User: What shape does this take?
Amino acid sequence: MRLSRPFIQLPVLFDAERLQTEVAALPAKAWALHPDGLPGNSAARLISPDGDETDSVHGQMLPTKWLATMPYLRQVLAGFGVVWGRSRLMRLAPGAGVPEHADINYHWHMRVRLHIPVLTLPQAHFHCDGQTVHMAAGEAWIFDNWRRHHVENKAMAERIHLVADTSGTAAFWRFAHGQTPPRDQWPRVNWNPATEARLLTERNQRAPVMPAAEVQLLVEDLCSELTCATDAADARARAARFLTLMESFIFDWRQLCALHGVDGRARPEFLRLVATVREVATPLAHGLIMRTNQASALLVLEKRVLQHLIADGVDGEGP
Assistant: This one.
């Protein structure tokens, strides 16, 4: 999700020592390697589809058996009053990092990632769009993951963050964007043994066919960021043709939805339109990028839009 600035620190503090105690009690088997195989990166899954050992973002999100052993961490998450998607403890080994990238996938279009550091030292740095912060233990941060960002743990100890995905409520966003009081006035959320946390978790089921209104939102958002990597006449001409193609795609998708509905029974018709758009867009998008993060326009079109228009497992294979 795009934010007004690279980093926003939420004016609330948590008991880092209590979090560290709960995390330290996890067995070694709770930690899994990073799904992309990044060296020195591992995670303990806390909220996942059906509470299983998976990194998928689709399905009924439920607490895992590891989160069940962490009552204070559950209180921390429940206290925000938001619906949580995939959530994990993310661990960086000493000297490890996360390479620079931007999160352009569909999942991130309307979600933000909350970071609550559990174990960290000042030598652990988070970089986003030219700004650098150290997120201290017990603090709470969100950041604009559409912008390019990377992480470095230059400390001689592990860095562990609670990271949890949410779209946020109106109250959450008022809290994030409101006037920040002096730090000594920030509330501190301590462990309350008398409170049983009630977590709200996503039911993230994909529709067989994406409704036309959401397709329009995604495509228009992409087009608003479109620019040319080089200011050349042929690039500007391709950009104009690409924008026309996207406008036509919205009209044609809307007509297919009006004719067939979105229950997936006419899936081949939608697949043909997707294939045509992909074929025509490929040469046009050469040299076209996103203004904010320099990502390839074709890659954003594919990963944020085309791959998610039609759910897998309905009348055959997906696009």
Q: What stands out?
A: Residues 233-260 form the longest helix (28 residues). The chain has seven helices and 18 strands. The mean pLDDT is 95.
